[in-house]
Amino acid sequence: MSFINYSSREINCKIVYYGPGLCGKTTNLNSIYNRTSQDLKGKLISLATETERTLFFDFLPLTLGDIRGFKIRLHLYTVPGQIFYAASRKLILKGVDGVVFVADSQIDRMEANLESLDDLKINLGEQGYELEKLPFSIQYNKRDLPHVLSIIDMNRMLNHRNVPWFEGVAIKGVGVFETLRSVAKQVLIELKKQY
Ligand SMILES: Nc1nc2c(ncn2[C@@H]2O[C@H](COP(=O)(O)OP(=O)(O)OP(=O)(O)O)[C@@H](O)[C@H]2O)c(=O)[nH]1
Ligand SMILES: [Mg+2]
């Protein structure tokens, strides 16, 4: 649920990047950070292990613009994808306004994608959310690699609701802003319904 601060006239919306380990969530945030002008972004905070795996989360605040005199800020988070950080993933989903699922397109990662999508649904459910009712976009990442599934197969396995999806090569910035724009647009539509 977006957080409205009436005194500073700001609305903060929380967008969480979810997906299996090494699918490219942190790379998405880095890419957004590197391609956003200084005046629109805050500090990118990353808590990573020595091998650059996300330990707790990454966080990036972005300013989107003004709506009816309120400054709209997006707070982007990534979860740690590794199985054993389940508690962090649950915590980071608290108060979520929109979700990006980053899938790894490699054939041998489909199992991990499916597991992560299930994990997302369960964790949301525990907090009284339903993925079906949240702003949601999917990114099929790592399209540059050789052994990837077709988009038709990926959609068939991961996108039953037919939500907006994008092909990504996050290390090159491909599809990154398209994905962010898509989920942000859905979040703003929800926001306008509420206020
Ligand atoms: N070839 C290729 N590599 C990518 C792409 N996106 C990310 N990577 C690489 O995949 C590895 C993992 O990327 P991260 O962004 O750290 O993955 P993550 O999803 O944050 O992983 P966790 O934090 O462990 O959950 C890194 O070596 C990235 O450079 C891509 O589109 N293509
Ligand atoms: Mg990460």
Description of the molecule:
- With 195 residues, this protein is of the alpha/beta class.
- It is 31% helix and 28% strand.
- It is built from five helices and eight strands.
- The chain has helices at residues 25-34, 86-92, 110-126, 151-158, 176-194, and strands spanning 3-5, 10-18, 45-48, 54-67, 70-78, 98-104, 136-141, 165-167.
- Strands 1, 2, 3, 4, 5, 6, 7 and 8 form an eight-stranded mixed beta sheet that branches.
- Strand 3 (45-48) and strand 4 (54-67) form a beta hairpin.
- The longest helix has 19 residues, at 176-194.
- The protein is globular, with a radius of gyration of 16 Å.
- It binds guanosine-5'-triphosphate and magnesium ion (MG).
- Magnesium ion binds next to helix 1.
Layout of SSEs?
Elements: E1 3-5, E2 10-18, H1 25-34, E3 45-48, E4 54-67, E5 70-78, H2 86-92, E6 98-104, H3 110-126, E7 136-141, H4 151-158, E8 165-167, H5 176-194
Parallel strand pairs: 2-5, 2-6, 6-7, 7-8
Antiparallel strand pairs: 1-2, 3-4, 4-5
The structure holds guanosine-5'-triphosphate and magnesium ion.
Describe this protein with a few key phrases.
single chain; 195 residues; alpha/beta; eight-stranded mixed beta sheet; 5 helices; 31% helix; 28% strand; binds guanosine-5'-triphosphate; binds magnesium ion
Given as residue ranges, the uncertain stretches (5+ residues, pLDDT < 50) are none
Ligands bound here? Answer: guanosine-5'-triphosphate, magnesium ion
Say how many strands there are: 8
What is the chain-wise order of helices and strands?
EEHEEEHEHEHEH
Radius of gyration: 16 Å
Can you give the mean pLDDT? 95
**What is the SS-derived class?**
alpha/beta
Main beta sheet: strand number and arrangement?
Answer: 8 strands, mixed
Q: Roughly how many Å apart are the termini?
A: 12 Å
What is the overall shape?
globular
Q: Approximately how much beta-strand content do the residues carry?
A: 25-35%
